[in-house]
Specification:
Layout lengths: L19 E2 L8 E3 L5 E5 L5 E6 L2 E6 L5 E5 L6 E11 L2 E18 L1 H4 L8 H5 L4 E7 L2 E2 L11 H4 L8 E2 L2 E4 L9 H14 L3 E5 L13 H5 L20 H12 L6 E2 L2 E2 L7 H7 L9 E5 L8 H21 L7 E4 L14 H14 L3 E4 L16 H14 L11 E8 L2 E7 L6 E2 L8 E3 L6 E5 L2 E5 L6 E4 L9 E2 L9 E4 L2
Parallel strand pairs: 2-8, 8-13, 8-16, 9-13, 16-17, 17-18
Antiparallel strand pairs: 1-3, 3-6, 4-5, 4-7, 7-8, 9-12, 10-11, 14-15, 19-20, 20-24, 21-26, 22-25, 23-24, 25-27
Helix pairs in contact: 4-10, 8-9
């Protein structure tokens, strides 16, 4: 099931004679380097459209459905602003200040959406925000900043795949960057400074959104575990997260004039809706990779926790297939930490552990640990600088071949011998350490909640009189666990069977 074929089929007939570009195209944008550039839009059927770029011209004839699509050549990274013009029947659209570089798509919920102006280091970064080679497409969306309240009619009318997102590309400066995703901005700033390749960030995150909204209905329908998520009204579907349905009902349940289909009323949390509104319209546009900070809305019930890896694997598989990029990188943020007295985070240790396991299940993925910079009283930790910079390490290591550790310590195995458990890790660097060289904290076993753990170069030793079945680290919703590697990158929460 699709919410729309393409945005063109929804246009009034009187507009089909007008030349239009797909909404993702505007001045100040970044086009993906080293990949054929696709430009597309609508015009009168049968008429010729001419695109001019880098002193070259490319032509296409508008199809019977008014769509046109032109493939340009590949271009190397270029800091020099370029102009692109599209001409048709006396009409001209001109896009200025275009760069060639790397384009990243950012998805997730409020911690990815969280803007720079509310980030911990915002004031000190204002003077560093003038970055002409850092660009972002940071659209607003229908229902943004409306929480447990009924959507006004003006918002409800925008709950279509065509109208849900609205925005244009901007260049980073002290004014524009304040509304940008802080995680994405720090990521782009770091990669730019290390590579000098222009960076473009497309931010499609939605506060509170479940992972299901970013996956196509088609993919879920064909999956044996997740076809139930796209059967019947999503607001009463037992396969969807409970909180997500509750918020959806608060927003649209009492409204009559809300666009809908067989799955019920449209909403940013509806299965497949953000995919239809944000991802599907840009699938013809080559991108470098995907950044994701999501999970809070899928971590409140054990059923949702235990299915998450398979659900996220489906998302990655679907994106790679639809972008025709089998190695498309996917870098994501592990949930942070918060006291369960302030948030329904009782299952976060299990969820963080599942997120850790995901890296070994799906290739070309990388996870950032953020539990060391959590806030015991808020689900929105204000320090997004470390998160964005840690995400950048994965990209720099994998995609730009920089020699650096991409991650904090990740456990490999736990072995019991002679009254001692040895826990081995990868991504240790020269040796393991702790934050500020404080005493090591955070290790437990299923037989000892206060396990005496010590660092021995690149491994952890735990003295015990009996062999436990499992060793745990950071196993609480809010954790003060403090193990790090030589680059001061934190270790992941984990549960590991003792061999």
């Amino acid at each position: 099931m699709k919410y729309c074929m393409l945005f063109i089929v929804l246009l009034p007939l009187q507009l089909l004679a007008q030349l239009q570009l797909a909404p993702v195209f505007s001045s100040n944008m970044v086009l993906q380097r080293d990949q054929p550039v696709h430009i597309w839009g609508v015009a009168k059927p049968g008429e010729q459209v001419v695109v001019s770029f880098y002193n070259q011209q490319f032509q296409a004839i508008a199809e019977g459905d008014s769509s046109w699509n032109i493939t340009l050549q590949k271009y190397a990274a270029d800091h020099q602003p370029q102009q692109l013009t599209v001409c048709y029947a006396g009409q001209t659209i001109t896009l200025n200040n275009i760069l060639i570089g790397d384009v990243w798509v950012c998805i997730g919920q409020s911690n990815m959406e969280w803007p720079m102006q509310r980030e911990l280091h915002y004031k000190e970064q204002t003077g560093k925000a003038q970055l002409p080679n850092l660009r972002f497409f940071n659209p607003t969306y229908a229902g943004k900043n409306i929480y447990a309240a009924v959507f006004p009619d003006s918002i409800a009318k925008r709950l279509t795949a065509k109208d849900f997102y609205s925005g244009e590309w901007q260049s980073s400066d002290s004014n524009t960057f304040k509304n940008m995703s802080a995680v994405a901005w720090y990521f782009g700033k770091t990669v730019l400074s290390e590579t000098d390749v222009p960076q473009g960030l497309i931010n499609l995150s939605i506060g509170g959104a479940p992972l299901e909204t970013f996956i196509s209905v088609e993919a879920m329908k064909q999956h044996p575990l997740f076809s139930a998520k796209v059967k019947g009204d999503w607001l009463t579907n037992t396969a969807m997260p409970t909180w997500v349905k509750q918020r959806g009902k608060e927003n649209v349940d009492d409204l009559e004039d809300v666009p809908s289909d067989a799955l019920g009323k449209n909403h940013g949390y509806k299965p497949g809706f953000a995919f239809a509104a944000g991802i599907e319209p840009i699938l013809q546009m080559p991108v470098k990779g995907i950044l994701c900070y999501q999970g809070e809305s899928n971590a409140q019930e054990i059923e949702r926790v235990m299915e998450y890896n398979a659900l996220q694997a489906l998302l990655v598989e679907d994106y790679r297939a639809k972008w025709k990029s089998p190695e498309l990188p996917f870098y994501y943020v592990q949930l942070s930490s918060i006291d369960s007295a302030r948030y329904k985070s009782q299952l976060w240790p299990q969820f963080r552990n599942e997120q850790r396991r995901f890296m070994s299940l799906v290739k070309n993925t990388g996870m950032v640990v953020s539990s060391d910079i959590g806030d015991s009283g808020s689900v929105h930790p204000l320090n997004k600088k470390d998160v964005g910079e840690r995400l950048a390490k994965w990209a720099l290591h994998d995609m730009y071949k920089k020699k650096m550790l991409p991650s904090g310590p990740i456990p490999v195995k736990a072995v019991f011998r002679g009254g001692n458990i040895a826990v081995y890790f990868k991504y240790t660097g020269k040796e393991l350490t702790t934050f500020n060289q404080a005493p090591l904290k955070g290790f437990t076993t299923n037989t000892d909640p206060h396990a005496a753990a010590t660092i021995h170069r690149r491994k952890i030793n735990i003295k015990t009189n009996q062999r436990p079945h499992y060793v745990y680290y950071g196993w609480s919703p809010y954790t003060d666990a403090n193990l790090m590697n030589a680059e001061n990158l934190p270790a992941s929460t984990f549960s590991l069977e003792v061999k």
